[in-house]
Amino acid sequence: MPKRGAFIVIEGLDRSGKSTQAAALLRRLQDAQVSAKLIKFPDRTTPIGKMIDAYLRSESELDDRAIHLLFSANRWELASSIEATLRSGETIICDRYAFSGLAFSASKVRPGSQSYPLLDYDWCRTPDAGLPAPDLTLFLDVSTDAAKARGGYGEERYEREDVQRRVRDVFVRIGDQVEAGGGRWEVVDADESEEAVRDVIWDAAKDLVKGVDAPIEKLWD
Ligand code: 2DT
Ligand code: MG
User: Fold this and answer.
1) Does ipTM exceed 0.85?
2) Quick check: is 2 in a domain?
3) How far is residue 125's CA from residue 157's CA, in Å, rounded to a whole number?
């Protein structure tokens, strides 16, 4: 049987260099004649994605559970196309995925509280269960200081230091859970230079991108 493509997810906080690194990995794969494509969540181009975009730009208000489910639905819209692409032998690099969905929602706190969760962690995890699972997740871990030195956060919802700190804590928990379930979760020190991070990512991905024999796993199975 021919090998399928690898499903590689890049996760991290804002200003961690995810998009830059995802693009760099794609170029490197293309240079190596590996068939690959880059996708990104949220995919703001679909009808659901447009609702997400308006929410992130604070042009609309949505119930916290409703927006969580929309982010998940935005992945489910593309789930079968992700599987088809992988089966065709093409590798996918994915800029954010269900782990962002879980980290950003489960890190929300009740109004007036700094630590009391608004949504239950397992409730947040459930809607994404069954999506194609990544073969490798690279978590780009950036410190608050480095993020600031990179020009700081933007104008969108969640682009605030207190939010980012809480999101990071949930990402650490998620990484432990992915590994406990047999998945591959690599923490990459994203305070390092762009070139250094690029090399670490290549080292982690280079065997996988030769193709994968194992079937596509389901997330949180
Ligand atoms: P970008 O800046 O990468 O476009 O992300 N987010 C993302 C969620 O809250 N839930 C999700 O499921 C996903 C994929 C992270 C926009 C923001 O959306 C957040 C940052
Ligand atoms: Mg952003």
Assistant:
1) yes
2) no
3) 21
